[in-house]
Amino acid sequence: MTTTSVGGQGRPPLVVESISNQLYSLLCERITTGVYAPGSRLDPQAIAAEFGVSRTPVRDTLVRLEHDRLVETRPRSGTFVTRPTRQDVHEVCQLRKGLEWLATGVAAEAMPLEQIADLRDEAVAALEASEQGDYEPFFASDTRIHREIVAATGNSRLVSTRNSVEPFVYWLRVLGATGQHRLAGSTRRHLEILDAMADRDVVAAQEAAAVHLDEVEEWTLADMASHAIVT
Q1: I need a surface site. Which of 38, 46, 138, 151 has the fewest CB within 10 A?
Q2: CB neighbours of 210 closer than 8 A, spacing ≥ 6?
Q3: Dihedral of CA 25/31/32/33: which sign?
Q4: Is 111 helix (H, G, I), strand (E, B) or coil?
Q5: pLDDT tens sequence across 162-199
């Protein structure tokens, strides 16, 4: 792989072969962490100048971000960071519920018991950390549990579809309020799912997964209604 790179002075260089991928990751991170606020306009020319690249990878990146529903293009106006709506929340949670209900059933039979126990220990430790005001371990544990359950299916198409909404899921989490009761509620469901998986109880694991995603939707919509999610 060649190491030829581009980029302005003082900025991390972008490797030529993967400029579009790197640019996508950078802009996706800026959106999902709130650096680019919902509703803000993205200037392709300014982005190209900042990273020292042509307009082509910028255009390709914005197309990918629009496919992920993170930006939207308005005729004669430009490209803007999306403002999440209640319908967005419903659609994402509905998609996750369908995918993860199926995945949890497969994982309940396929995931090694050692892996289930490790996920459980991490979830308990993360909740304890959150009680001390440190929420990052919970976010890491939450992401890992859902990701590894889907990965346990061995179904590459299922994994790809789940991954396609992960930036949006993370974005909503960043925009929303973090409440101890919500973290405790999610951890309780995570433990129910994992304990049922450890017992190889497919029905109980799937039921807990379905309830969990319904609660996630309910809590996220409540955040939007209370303006905890500011767009």
Answers
A1: 46
A2: 97, 101
A3: positive
A4: coil
A5: 998 998 888 887 776 556 678 889 999 999 999 999 99
CA 220 to chain centre: 14
Helix (H, G, I), strand (E, B) or coil at 7: coil
Distance CA 114, CA 152 (A): 13
Rounded CA-CA distance 105/150 in Å is: 10
Nearest 5°: CA angle at 95, between 94 and 99?
120
Q: At 177, is the secondary structure helix, strand, or coil?
A: coil
Helix (H) or strand (E) holding 14: strand 14-15
pLDDT on residue 80: 97
Q: Which amino acid is located at 87 in the chain?
A: Q
Distance CA 200, CA 117 (A): 13
Using DSSP's 3-state secondary structure scheme, residue 43 falls into coil
Q: Which two tokens stand for residue 160?
A: 């790809």
What's the rounded Cα separation, in Å, for the pair 217 and 78?
31
